[in-house]
């Protein structure tokens, strides 16, 4: 059986991407305190540094954090980054994983292929940071309504990957209902391009995630 592209660690060639990887390796090494919380993902995670900056400050500034979101990344790109040092020698309490929308949007991968890439990431994260809790985040909805092709790919992928969670070492985290109206429609007032959340949605995400992390933290420091 052929290994799907979503599972084959792949290095990107863009200069900014390579530079960000170098910078993140340095940021991890220079951290004065042990890292509490790591985010891994694509542009939606990357944008915590932009659209979500205020929410990040409000909900995570008291923690030692590392944002490993890269715009445009698919699962295979995150696999390469982790294999090449981004999680080496860290002992984070939590790793938040949100990725897969670009597998759906760029290449129209099958849900099973995207899920396989995400499962590979979970295994690799567990290998690199064995004591962390992985917050497996449902891929955010995209496209206006639930009948669109990419929405269906995302929804089906989420149905698969939720089975990877055990609510202990891998925690399922799904806030997608916050983004949709009663009919399942995604509006530009929530995601202006029907893909990337606006600042208010980052606030909802940060508040909800912060509450979840505190409920699982054994030391009471989160």
Automatic annotation (TrEMBL):
Q: Which family does it belong to?
A: Belongs to the 'GDSL' lipolytic enzyme family. Platelet-activating factor acetylhydrolase IB beta/gamma subunits subfamily.
Where is each SGNH hydrolase-type esterase domain found?
Answer: 39-203
Q: Organism source for this protein?
A: Glaciecola nitratireducens (strain JCM 12485 / KCTC 12276 / FR1064)
Q: From the UniProt annotation, give the residues forming the signal peptide.
A: none
Cross-referenced InterPro entries: SGNH_hydro, SGNH_hydro_sf
Listed GO molecular functions? hydrolase activity, acting on ester bonds
Concerning Pfam families, the annotation shows: Lipase_GDSL_2
- The molecule here is called Lipolytic enzyme, G-D-S-L
């Amino acid at each position: 059986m052929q290994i799907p592209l979503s599972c084959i660690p792949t290095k990107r060639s863009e200069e900014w991407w390579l530079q960000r990887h170098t910078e993140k390796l340095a940021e991890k090494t220079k951290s004065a305190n042990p890292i509490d919380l790591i985010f891994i993902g694509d542009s939606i995670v990357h944008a915590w540094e932009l659209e979500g900056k205020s929410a990040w400050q409000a909900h995570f500034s008291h923690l030692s954090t590392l944002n490993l979101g890269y715009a445009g990344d698919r699962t295979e790109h995150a696999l390469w980054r982790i294999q090449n040092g981004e999680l080496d020698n860290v002992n984070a309490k939590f790793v938040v994983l949100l990725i897969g929308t670009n597998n759906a949007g760029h290449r129209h991968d099958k849900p099973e292929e995207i899920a396989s890439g995400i499962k590979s990431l979970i295994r690799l994260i567990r290998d690199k940071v064995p004591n962390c809790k992985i917050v497996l985040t449902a891929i955010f909805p995209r496209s206006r309504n639930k009948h669109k092709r990419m929405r269906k790919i995302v929804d089906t992928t989420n149905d698969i990957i939720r089975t990877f969670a055990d609510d202990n070492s891998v925690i399922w985290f799904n806030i997608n209902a916050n983004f949709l109206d009663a009919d399942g429609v995604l509006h530009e007032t929530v995601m202006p391009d029907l893909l990337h959340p606006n600042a208010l949605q980052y606030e909802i995400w940060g508040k909800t995630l912060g509450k979840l992390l505190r409920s699982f933290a054994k030391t009471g420091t989160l």
